[in-house]
Amino acid sequence: MHRSVLRGSRRKGAAAVAVLAAFTAALAGQPGAAAEGGAAPSVPALRLDWRACAGNGVYDCATARVPLDYAKPRGRTIELAVVKRKATGPGRRIGTLFFNPGGPGGPGTVQMPQNYGFFPKAVRERFDIVSWDPRGIGNSTAVNCFASPEEAEAWNASKPAGFPVGRRERQEWISAYRELGRLCDQRDPELLRHVGTEDTARDLDQIRRAVGDPKLTYQGISYGTILGATYANLFPSRVRAMTLDSNITPTAWTNRANDDARLPTFLRMGSDRSAAATLDQFLKLCGSRPTAQCAFSAGGPEATRRKFDQLTARLRKHPVGTWTYARTVADTISGLYIVHPGWTQLGARLQDLWRGREPQPAAAQDTSALPYPIPYTGEEQAAAVFCGDSPNPLDPRAYHPIEEASAARTGDAGRFWTWAAEPCATWPATAASRYTGPWNKPTANPVLVVGTAYDPSTPYQDAQAMAKELADARLLTNTGYGHTALLNPSGCIQAHESRYFISGTLPRPGTKCAQDVPPFSTP
């Protein structure tokens, strides 16, 4: 799951024509019956008035107006910011590929343009690529619980960075998020109850209808996988092709439809174990390289692991400027998401801290060519979706013993991923509409599930579980590292995804792909 707006902004003849023609014909039927997706009242048809985005001639922008509450389609409406990049192959367009960049809280109007080059060339040629800021997020009608940027900054400064360490910091953390919930409940409590995944899946279906596609072609990464799985089970007859990359197990997200959660979502998913395993691989590979390739290397895997443990122990007692133990652990786990150049940069930051120097801030990204402005994406936006949708323990006092139990199994990663869900303990709202299953409704066409062996956020085991829980899915394994195969490229993965999106051809069962460039392979 993504924790930052800008993180990661970083394939003959007559036979082939016959396969594509048959696939297209098979998928070109009318949308499913009105009853599919539940017996919701009739929703007015959505109209998208596309226009060239200001300051960027290659993207088109539109605003979608949708019901806040699909049970009351003539009531209050909200706006969704939508962006499109047209297919680049003239005369070869198949339709629209919808993309959700994860989060929850990822603004598609920013992250799709930033990462457009990661989509396979064959897909960019044949599909318009459309993304949007989901309800409650970014440039759409957004959850914003502060009166000013200064107020938001002051709230952020009131809590420890990363996660709390010790009784005093735990009290500060819990108090800060209790206050955030109180502020949000005062601002727009009705909106908080209508930014969940089911409502967003219904928005996606409205946008699909508006672009004229009879069925959905979709790629979702991270949180976008649970959105895709929700759509596939609300509207199973409307699935043309769907790739889910870096998966969240549906039964883990929903706690098997049980609101009485004993473990936080990320521990149900296994994020703590997966992050610990990925960190171990980082230290092993770093240690097997010279310092010219990984600055933190201590000359061998075991020595580098010991060096990391020594660094974190030292930071517990003696922070380096604002770099506390907890901030360093959080930065380390986030730094594992993108292998190139992320792992090399992470090694350099850890080496700076080892030498007692504060790491230099990352260079600001050039956002001048983006089709939409960089929006406010405060923590309350992700919390509104996550906490409203996914059950977590409601007693703040439960998290410390859970943290200690997880840390006994997985070390520092357990502490980070336990506290990442604690804000939900005092969140004031639950989604009015929550899809909790079943997850095995037969879809019109099979789903392609992609999982990465060493993912610091969404474990490979969750991809295996997603492929089993869906009615008709094929698992494609990325044997590499990092969070999402999209942002950690593999030409093998891209070739399989391209064939699947264009002609419906799935990889053979058990197919495995390697990443193009191994970690630390260049200075």
Summarize the structure.
The chain is an alpha/beta fold and 523 residues long. It contains 19 helices and ten strands.
Written description of the protein model:
By secondary structure, this protein is of the alpha/beta class. Helix content is 40%, strand content 12%. The chain contains 19 helices and 10 strands. It has helices at 14-27, 108-114, 121-126, 149-157, 167-187, 189-192, 197-211, 223-234, 250-253, 265-269, 271-287, 301-317, 325-335, 342-354, 379-389, 399-410, 412-419, 460-469, 491-503; strands spanning 51-52, 59-67, 77-85, 95-100, 127-132, 216-221, 239-245, 447-454, 473-481, 512-513. Strands 1-2-3-5-4-6-7-8-9-10 form a 10-stranded mixed β-sheet, sandwiched between helices. Strand 6 (216-221), helix 8 and strand 7 form a beta-alpha-beta unit. It is globular, with a radius of gyration of 22 Å. Residues 2-34 have low confidence and may be disordered.
**What summary fits the major beta sheet?**
10 strands, mixed
User: Helical region count?
Assistant: 19
Q: Widest sheet: strand order?
A: 1-2-3-5-4-6-7-8-9-10
Q: Please report the distance between the alpha carbons of the first and last residues.
A: 29 Å
User: What oligomeric state do these chains adopt?
Assistant: single chain
Beta content: 5-15%
Low-confidence stretches: 2-34
- Helical residues, percent: 25-40%
The Rg value, from CA coordinates, equals 22 Å
| Overall geometric form | globular
Number of strands: 10
Coarse structural class: alpha/beta
Helix and strand succession?
Answer: HEEEEHHEHHHHEHEHHHHHHHHHEHEHE
Mean pLDDT across the residues is 93
